[in-house]
Specification:
The chain is mainly beta. The protein has two domains: 135 residues, Roll (Chitinase A, domain 3); 104 residues, Chitinase A, domain 3, CATH 3.10.50.40. It is built from three helices and twelve strands. The strands form two sheets. Strands 1, 2, 3, 4, 5 and 6 form a six-stranded antiparallel β-sheet that branches. Strands 7, 8, 9, 10, 11 and 12 form a six-stranded antiparallel β-sheet that branches. The longest helix has 7 residues. The radius of gyration is 20 Å and the shape is elongated.
Length: 249
C-alpha cells in the first residue's frame, strides 16, 4: 500500500485505500485523547483540516504536516486515507489532539511503504502511530490572493469574466477555461458551484486568486456526472478576474 494513500502531497491523488494486503495482525485501533477539544464534533462526511505526525513504534517519524509544510485536508468515511485514520478520527472535536495506534492491516499492510527497494520509511507489516490535531472543519473556501489586482472590486450581483483552471488534490487539472474564451457569470445568482461564487466575491479586476473549495461547496458526496471529479473531492482553483461586465448597456 502506498504512503500516498493518505498523504496530501502535490502530485499524487488521494485514493481509496485497499486493506486487503494487510498482514496477519487482527488487532484493533488503540485511541488516546491527549486533549478532547471544545469545538464541533467530527463525524463521517465532514471535511476537516488536520495537522499530524506519523511515527513507527520506536518513535521514528516517517512523515508529518510540518515536514511537508501543509496540513492534510480530507473527509472521514470517504475511503481516501488509510483505514486507521478513517476509523480513528470520527468522534474527535475541533481543537482536539488524538494519538491513534494503528495495526498494520489498517495501515500499510504486508507491503509497507518503500521509496526504493532499499529505502522503506514504513517496513512491511509495521504498526504505526499517528498524533493528529483537528485544526478546523473546512466548510468554507480557503482563499489566497496571488495578485491583488488594480481594478474595480466585484461583489454579489456583479457580472464578471474569468479565466480559470481547476485541479484535484494531486494537482492534475480536470477543467480549465478555453484560451481567449472566458467564463462569464453573475456572482451569487447563476448555477455554478457555490465555492466559486464565494471565492470570486471581493476580488479586484486583474487580480488572481487560489481557491481551495471543499466538497460541500463543490460536487459533494457524489462527484460530477462525468466521473472526472470523484466523490468528496476538494477542488483547487486558480482564478484570473479579467473584467467586470457593464450590465447597463
Amino acid at each position: 500500500m502506498s504512503l500516498l494513500c493518505f498523504l496530501l502531497i502535490p502530485f499524487v491523488l488521494l485514493s481509496g485505500c485497499d486493506s486487503s494486503n494487510g498482514g496477519g495482525d487482527d488487532g484493533d485501533l488503540v485511541i488516546q485523547d491527549i486533549s478532547v477539544g471544545t469545538g464541533e464534533l467530527i463525524e463521517n462526511g465532514i471535511t476537516i483540516i488536520v495537522s499530524y505526525v506519523g511515527m513507527l513504534e520506536d518513535g521514528t517519524v516517517f512523515d508529518s504536516s510540518e515536514l511537508r509544510g501543509e496540513n492534510l485536508i480530507f473527509t472521514p468515511g470517504a475511503n481516501n486515507v488509510i483505514l486507521g485514520l478513517d476509523q480513528g478520527i470520527p468522534g474527535m472535536r475541533v481543537g482536539g489532539i488524538r494519538r491513534i495506534e494503528i495495526p498494520s492491516h489498517l495501515a500499510f499492510g504486508r507491503n509497507g511503504f518503500c521509496v526504493t527497494d532499499n529505502d522503506c520509511p514504513v517496513p512491511k507489516n509495521a504498526d504505526v502511530i499517528f498524533e493528529v490535531t483537528v485544526e478546523d472543519i473546512l466548510d468554507f473556501v480557503l482563499i489566497e490572493d496571488l495578485e491583488l489586482g488594480s481594478g474595480d472590486e466585484v461583489m454579489e450581483g456583479d457580472r464578471v469574466r474569468i479565466e480559470y483552471t481547476v485541479a484535484l488534490q494531486n494537482r492534475v487539472i480536470v477543467d480549465a477555461s478555453v484560451p481567449d474564451s472566458y467564463l462569464e457569470f453573475t456572482i451569487g445568482t447563476e448555477f455554478i458551484i457555490p465555492g466559486l461564487h464565494e471565492g470570486v466575491d471581493g476580488m479586484r479586476v486583474e487580480g488572481v486568486r487560489s481557491l481551495t473549495i471543499p466538497p460541500v461547496l463543490a460536487y459533494g458526496e457524489f462527484g460530477d456526472l462525468s466521473g472526472v471529479i470523484p466523490p468528496f473531492a476538494v477542488l483547487l482553483f486558480r482564478v484570473d478576474l479579467i473584467e467586470k461586465v457593464d450590465q447597463d448597456g
